[in-house]
Structures
1.
Amino acid sequence: MTRTRSIAILALVAVAYVAITTLYLLGARDVADEDAPPPPSGGVLVSLDLDGLRGETYSLETRVSIEPDATLLDSTGELTGAVTVEVRPAANTGTATFAQGTRAGSAPVTLYLDGDIRQWPFDRYEAAGLTVVATIDDGTGRTTVPVAVTVTDSMPSWVTGLVDDGTGPVTITAERTTETVAFAVVLCLVLVALPVLTLFVSVATLLGRKQFLPPIVTWFAVMLFAVLPIRNLFPGAPPLGSRVDYVVVLWVVFGLAVSLVLYVTAWWRQGP
């Protein structure tokens, strides 16, 4: 029976390993980006490259770049006028200006986010109601030009999308990838395993089924000190007080402390 259980445990670990690795490899495959739409006639295609998401500060770091229509470029491919792109609402100025006579580059813009990092690892975010306006100034006055918006993703561990019906403000969405969530769940299961093992040893010793061994007290201490390093490995670094702390981490620490108390009780009862 013991051999059968051992084989079953090894098989379960192997299946979990293969599943997590497969999810990671599938998520890490190079997938060709969808073709970006062309710039509108007489206007610009505004690309929002997502660089970083900070759930604790409700901010989304982006870089704004443009692809002007040929009518806004001279024969050398440089802008015939200064193009200004304004993204609202934004946490900073939300304005990127590309000077006349230059090739369009990129500029950082930080957007506001709605979401709750305390729901980690199932937190989801969106930057809703974004309006993008572009103007060009060729020296004779500022003129508003048509705009198309696209999103590119430079953030690992996130799946992002753009909701744009073409009739008004756009929305950027972001949620953690499947492999990131799976990794987080596995780390939580590792934490849960710690008090389960120590409680098993403590209860067996307290009931007299196993002999008290002083070195095991050190093992309990190592288990307690292992909680914080494992907690710090959580992808996305959820802040203290997140849901996972109340659902998992708190009870892991409590279980380990109870295990230690039970083992010391067993020592007291079995001691001379």
2.
Amino acid sequence: MNLSPRSFLKQLRINEAKKKLCNTEASIGQIAKEVGFLNQFNFIRSFKNSLELSPENYRKIYKNK
């Protein structure tokens, strides 16, 4: 896997957030809390670093696809 435990956990959280962004109407802040981030600002930064796309833009592009 070549991932540290911290990186692996972060990736799991991002993957769960992607599902929630596409399948729910929950706010970005609510999703951040549900998947285990301390606040939405850390979540948005991590999401952008992982996907080079903000959670809001990800939702706009991939919702209901």
